[in-house]
Amino acid sequence: MLYYVVLRLTKRSEYGLMALAYMAQSGSAYTSVKSIVADLTVPRRLLAEVLKELSRASIVEAVRGPGGGYRLMQSPEDLSLAHVVEILEGPVKVADCADGGQCELSPSCTIQTGINVVANRIKSVLDTYSLAELAGANQQAKLQNDIFAV
To answer: Which of 17, 45, 84, 103 has its C-alpha lying 20 to 30 A from 91's C-alpha?
Structure first.
């Protein structure tokens, strides 16, 4: 039997990045959780938790009341995907042994050096890719879909 291991973002990171990209495209206006949920069709409760966590980390600012909501406190160009993922999930780790960690198989492990290279490359991509690039790529795809929909 063949098993596949897939590296993927958790829903917390996925929804957090989606909401941040949505806010980046909205400029400096406050965006309500209600409008994010309606437009992105993500679960309200989990999104609210994620946004509270991003607010505590000073990534977004929260304002209550009419006209309130959330908005970015940092420039999307200066916000790396790694930073957001680490806020929501903790350090990016591909395996227990990556980045100097240890596991019970360390003495006999045949992939430890290679997995460290993979982990560093993944972290590097997340470090160098900004929220602005993520939001911009989404905007470009939307424009392409609009062009072909005609």
So the answer is: 45
For residue 36, the domain's CATH number is: 1.10.10.10
Distance (Å, whole) CA 1 – CA 70: 47
Query: How confident is the prediction along the chain (150 residues), in pLDDT tens digits per residue?
Result: 444 445 678 999 999 999 999 999 988 889 999 999 999 999 999 999 999 999 999 999 999 988 889 999 999 999 999 999 999 988 877 776 666 666 777 777 787 778 788 888 888 888 999 999 998 865 544 444 444 444
Does a structural domain hold residue 137?
no
Pair 15, 70 in one domain? yes
For residue 1, being part of any structural domain is answered with no
Query: Would residue 86 count as lying in a domain?
Result: yes
Tell me the whole-structure pTM to 2 decimals. 0.79
In a domain, 65, yes or no: yes
- Residue found under tokens 């490359």: 121
On whether the CB atoms of residues 19 and 47 are closer than 8 A, the answer is yes
Query: By residue range, what is the domain housing residue 116?
Result: 80-129
